[in-house]
Structures are given as structure tokens and as C-alpha cells.
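[#protein-structures] MJ: dropping Wadjet protein JetD C-terminal domain-containing protein here for a structure pass
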Amino acid sequence: MNTTLANEALEKLWGRGDRATLKGSDRQPSLSLSENSFPKYFTLPSASAKSDFHASLRDAERSGAIAIEWDCRAGYDGQIKRLVLSSFAQLTAYLNRTSTQEVVNRAFAELISWADDERVAHLIDRWKNGKSPRGISSDRYADVVDALKVIDDRQGEAFLDESVRRVSARLFGDSKRIEKLVPIIDLLTATEGDSIARHPEAVLAFIGLKKYPIPFLVAGVGALILKDQSGGTTTAPVPYPYVGYEPSVIRGYVGSPGYVLSVENLTTFHELANNRAGKVDGLIVYTGGFPSPSGIKAYQFVTSEVPPGTPIYHWGDTDLSGFRIAVQLAEAIKPQSKRLLLWKMGENVTGTSSLNMTSADRERILQLCRNWKWDLAERNLSGGSPAIEQELQSLVLPA
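AK: finished. C-alpha cells for Wadjet protein JetD C-terminal domain-containing protein:
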């Protein structure tokens, strides 16, 4: 019998029934076997194939799952006009499927421990409406549970920097499990209004996970206040060309730098620290790519101690990730009544950039620029500036 095409028709009808059940609709789903709705019915190769197709659907009808409406003008077994869903439960059993409603119910039961979490409640609500945010469907509820376990663990550890694979092995006995959960962790930790997926490194750094620990690197003038082993503090001058500490030991800064400049990329940091752009009269901080919560705290300890009026800049790649890093830093110093300025982002290209910027990324960056009043970068990007890596820009320090 021609069961393949018959199953395709039944699956299509089942999908309509599944959506109707999720919505609590009283309407009886049906599928018109017209040339527009189901054209394959009209291209069956022979009368025998058509008869087999009809026989398969009659079998489903005998199970109580569907009713067949025949075109009375075509005679016996001539032409099916419509398939009508008689029993969604029967059709689900006939096709050996699991309804989305049942999956959502299972998901809710598994996620009950996080029922008060707004993001979890929102995700379940989206599932109930047949949606799959960021492609995360209801049948992945077990992955969502694991992602929430990761987030809870990081909260319990105060988001202190740890190796992602060590934490993954500790939680799941699989050193690579967390990396497979990144899209879900991204969804559950995304800031409101940010619908564009973040770079995996950004997602993990946001909860204090790194491939390997990254020290808080600084170069320039002044001294750092550090927590010592006795619980007190000590002051350590910033030596040439640079120095690095575990972020959690940073407690402040002493000095009068001409500026504070955070830098996204390690190569650029090393070049600037070694006076490749001239003597450093300010303080240069390496963000470690996407800064972790402990890196942000160290940065805040430093910026809180610089004299009022000291300009604070960030220099990163001119792409969505670079601007997202800038936003993290801008948000970090906002409670200090300080404003982050951008340094060279979107300008001074010394070569031809071959990196494309999607229209969605560009629009998101422009919105971030408007939010933070980064007018020059907004003008450059509105004018069609490409994505730019720092390595394509001249080494220049603030005056």
C-alpha cells in the first residue's frame, strides 16, 4: 500500500490537531486534499497507487482517528475531498507520536523547581503556544534542566572564574556537556530586548566560565591595591611592561592616570603595553575578550579610584561582540556616575577589511550606540563601516 504519502497526509492533519490542542481550540481540524493544499495527491502515478493511498487512509479511519469525506461526484473510491480529525488521541496513538501538550506537561513537571524563575515561566508559556524560542523546542526540556543546574552552580560559586570543562566534568561527568548547552544558557541569561544570540565565549564568560583562567592584566602608571593572604590589603606598583593578577584579589587603584583604556584583544594589549604606540601615561586594562563577573568587579575596583574627570575608554573589535563588551563595561561604571567612551571603534582602518557585518548585527550595534550616545561610532556604522578587527587599526593611545 502507498503508506508513505498517506502518512504524510496524516502527519499534516496531526500537526493541526496538535496546535489546536495546545491552544485549547474547539474547532475540528481538517485537511483538504485539494490541488493547492495537498498537490501530491494529484500526481500519484497510477490508479493502483491511488487505490493504495485510499486504503491506507481507510485503515486510519477504522481506528477511529479520522473521518474521510469523499467527493460524491467521483463515484466509489474515486476522490477524497477532505480528511477530518475524529480523535486526536487516536491519531496520536496510530502514528505513534507524542503530543506537544504531553511534552510540555513533562517539561513543566521537570522544571517545577524553577517555576518562580520568570525566564523559565516565559519559556514554558512559549512552548504552550507552539513556539520554540531560539530553536529550543519543548522536547529539549532535559537540556534546559541541565542548563539551569549550570546557572545555579555558578550563582552558588558567586560567578568566580572557573574552567568550563572542569565545572562540566564536576556537574555531569562530561567535560564538554556545558559547551553543548550554550544556546540554552544564552536564552536563559540574555538581557531583556536582546534577541540576537551571543558569541559562545560571551555566554560562558557572563557566568564566570572560561576555557582557561585569565589574569587581570594592566599596564601603565599607578599601583594596584590587592587583597593579601591575611585578609588585609597591600599596594603593588604597576611595573613595565605589564602585570597580571587573579581578578578576585584586585581591591582598588592608586594613581592619577591620564586615561583608563580597556582593550579587548591580547595582541593589541601587549603592543600598547610595550610602548609600540608611545609611552603609556594612562592605565591599560585587558578585558580577556568577554569579561567575566570577577573581571568586571576588578575593573570596577580600579575605575572607582581614578580621579574624577579621568576619561575612560574602551577599544574593541568593530563588530557586535566588541560593542557588547563595551556595553558590559559601560554598565559597570554607570553606578559610579562615570561614562564609557569608545576609542577608535569603527574608524582608522589601515587595510581592507574582508569581514562582513549582517544587517541585523549593524542595526543592533546602532541601537546600542544610540542608547549609550556613542555618536561617532553610530555615524561611521550608519555610513557603512565594515566589521573591523583591532589588528587592522593603527596603534594609537589617547592623548
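MJ: nice. The mean pLDDT is 93.
AK: one more thing. Residues 3-94 form one domain.
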